[in-house]
């Protein structure tokens, strides 16, 4: 599929593959960064509180 896209846009194959690999890694990193926030929100927990505010 990547080779077909590279031919369609006349991109050199290695450059296209490297670009897509970098794009995929950036997307995976961003999802991993946001995952804890999504899970925390989905669980319905109250906002995080500081220890001092519990006294």
Global structural class: mainly alpha
Radius of gyration (Å): 21 Å
Helix content bin: 55-70%
The low-confidence runs, each spanning 5 or more residues with pLDDT under 50, are none
Task: Give the SSE order as H and E letters.
Answer: HH
Give the total of beta strands. 0
Largest sheet: none
Distance between the termini: 59 Å
Average of pLDDT: 81
What's the total helix number? 2
Beta content: under 5%
Principal-axes geometry comes out as rod-shaped
Verbal overview:
The radius of gyration is 21 Å and the shape is rod-shaped. The chain is 69% helix and 0% strand. 0% of the residues are buried. The model has no long low-confidence stretch (mean pLDDT 81). It is mainly alpha-helical and 55 residues long. It has 2 helices and no strands. The longest helix has 31 residues.
Quick description:
The chain has 55 residues and is mostly helical. Helix content is 69%, strand content 0%. It has helices at 2-8, 13-43.
Chain-wise SSE layout:
Layout lengths: L1 H7 L4 H31 L12
């Amino acid at each position: 599929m990547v080779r077909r896209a590279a031919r369609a846009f006349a991109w050199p194959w290695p450059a296209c593959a490297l670009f897509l690999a970098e794009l995929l890694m950036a997307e995976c990193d961003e999802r991993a960064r946001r995952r804890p926030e999504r899970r925390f929100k989905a669980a319905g927990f109250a906002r995080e509180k500081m220890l001092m505010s519990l006294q």
